[in-house]
Amino acid sequence: MEELQDALEDAQYVNAINLDEGPRPITAWEMPCDEEMTRWNAALMKEWTDSPDMDQLPEPFTYEWMMHSSLGFYLFATYIKETSHDYLQINFIEELLRWRYLRGQSRGSKLKRIYEQYLLPCPRDELTKQPIRPPLLTIEEVDLECTYVKPPISKEELRQLALEHMDDSCRKSAIGFHGRCYDSLMNVLEDYLSRESQAETVEISLDGNTATEDGGEDGEGSTGNGDDQQDESDDRNDDDDGDNESISSNHSTSAMSQSKLAGRALSRVPKEIFAEIEMIVLECIRLRHFDDFKKSGEWKKFINYLWHRDKKISDEDFFLMRVLGRGGFGLVTACKKGTTGTLYAMKVMNKKRIKAKKSVQLALNERACLASVDSPFVVNLKYSFQTKDDLYLILDLMTGGDLSFHLSQRGRFPKEDCLYYASRIMLGLQALHDKNYVYRDLKPENLLLAEDGRVRITDLGLATQVTPTLHGAAGTRGYWAPEMLRRNEKGKRMNYDQRVDWFSYGCVVAEMICGCNPFRSENALKFGLSKASSKEKALDYATLHMEPSFESKKFTATSTDLCRKLLQKDPKQRLGSNGCEEIMAHPWFKDLDWEMIISDRAKPPFEPLKDINAASQSEIGTFAEDRNALKLSDEDQDVYEDWDWTSQKVFCSEVIEMLIYERDTGKPLIPLTVAGSCCCAIS
Prior knowledge:
The chain has 683 residues and is an alpha+beta fold.
């Protein structure tokens, strides 16, 4: 019977991850009655008034508060477009928000379109002489929101500015904007446009060839010309560039810098350049539409969804599908959120096992780190909650298996794959370092692929905040940095910081290139056993004293140089010691389009099969019931007092994805069941 149950769960899981039909919720939304809504309103207001940052946060239920939410912005923008022909101003705001997400050349191109479509007068039809308005745009993103910034002037002053600067009959701009702020903005933008136009004609002679600049940002635009194509049948993993490869030739550096400075004019326009006009346009939109919106069903829909967002979540909100793996404290299982149909991974950790292994602080560290890091290069936390016996983490579902599995299948990766994975892993580590965390467990087994091949760092159980006294080996032997193993003259472990992660990163990069970690190889074992009595001590000795060799059949001069600099024994000399920008600038990455990588738009080089990229459920096994398990005291439970957490961004994204699906297909999803007559149904 167990085998049959496993087969059914396997089939359910494969079917779920292969469906491309949009959200598939399986339970109705539970919505509040009058009493519940009143309590929630009061709690929300109290939370705001008690906040030490109250003056810098929008007051609940106001226009600014609604626009600060991606869900509120989506519903309000949709309402305007469905009930009014006056869509240009809200589309202008949407385009500004999109522009701020972009980098490099694409950022400059978007800004030019904004200028031409919204800030210049509408062109007129030659026959009818009627203005040709920019097309109506719909929101396709799930994370578009207006970041709240408290206006530097009073509400009344802002209102007067909006009345003075906005005029539908004005022909100076498509959005009806004019006046002092408009003139000032246009002068600045036209100056940038003039420099951009001049840069387009600049050509540089580089080593006898003519090249046109690409307009990307420093270190972020592609510098490749497409000539260094990888021949996957070649036995070499890297392009044979030799020792003379560099970012640019010395004799042309000055000319290139001058041209790039000019050619990047539009991509370098500061984000705050639109602050004043955006503030005024948003106020105009408020004056025209917000009061009517608050009387509409869309406003009630928004409020009801937010009540549900703040409602306590539990294991009953998720439906289990298939066990994917087993950790030290419990199982990782694929699951589906009932109300939205979104697929996630559920990591369960048993409190008694955590206590038995004296790992309470590790569990708390993992939860805190996951909640603080929001990066497309790290597996993100969506929800966390608990029961009397277990802790739950709801995470991104990565269906493509881990990098170790694919490396074992393919032997080693071609350069294109190595570049893609190495760049994303680097940015994931930097995201952790930016929050003052050190990861400490980087290895291919902890690098998971999504269904489309995007790789992310996972398993933050050993991540911890960096302190002046941080010491002790943590992670996996052979990936440890030397400073984790060193002791001072008194025999005590040495302190370390985030630089240990760059050593582990060097091990992983080398392993992707040649198929083997330099410090877990036969050479390392042989080297270590000459001085150590056990395999474990041998690997440690090799880490401390061996200088790895990089065979020319698999490594080129540039890849060898990169790995040597990452595997420096001295952390002060290690590449990355001053941040990932040092690594990004290394010649091995010279052909990488950093703009596409950083914006998460680069297409993965390899797409895993849409199948079960995990061990069978029988191999994973279960945890045997321990009749002599420790008892949990009130103090043991109190330590998890702040465990419960919901990502507001994730919740809104789930709902918006549903709403976009309904809008695009005309197919309503599961309707609401309303507990009281006071609340509208969300449909």
